[in-house]
Amino acid sequence: MGNVIETANISRAFSVAGGEKFYALRDVNIAIPENKLTILKGRSGSGKTTLINILGALDMPTEGKVTFAGQDITAMNEQEREELRRTQIGFVFQSVSLIPIMTAYENVEFALRLAGVKENIKERAQESLKMVGLAARMYHMPQELSGGEQQRVAIARAIAHRPKVVFADEPTAELDTGTSLQVMKLFSELVEREGITIIMTTHDRGLMGMGGMLYELSDGQLVNAQEKEAENG
Asked: What is the CATH topology of the domain spanning 35-57+77-227?
């Protein structure tokens, strides 16, 4: 089993008042193993969201290199990165951002069309919602669903086009403990059954032991890395 994403000495600097630079990340080297759940932990302001945005080709490092499935995404132009995000990456955010005038099924179907999927759209949308346990709720509107169910729709939407990697930025932050654990269990099942690589950020200590790989950030620097061979395969 190889690594789907690797970084080489990536830093991300932002200009601040007085011509100074603030480093959100500094010299970060990580390797994301494929077909595992990797957790990025750290306090607010530690750099984990900046890191996940760079790994997901939403942002670019100021220095260093990022490879995604063997491709140097730091050498790509914006159009190439957009194609990568559209076809090989799925995103789950803290705010589920479902389209309120569409049913759960229509939200997933719409995402498939945006990803350029042409065949078996209906079947794949239904299959994705069944995978997240919403077979009986797929034709409900978002406001008719609980917070946990809405997040499950967001996960179905993120996995429907069969991406290589799903990025989840604080996906359980607005959920209660029981629902958060259900989402984590679902992530583990998707890694196991679908062979998806999932990278998520969290500051919830109760969830940090559920990943196969754990990276800890503090003040923009990597301070700890732990791999759990027994988890997820």
From this structure: Rossmann fold (3.40.50)
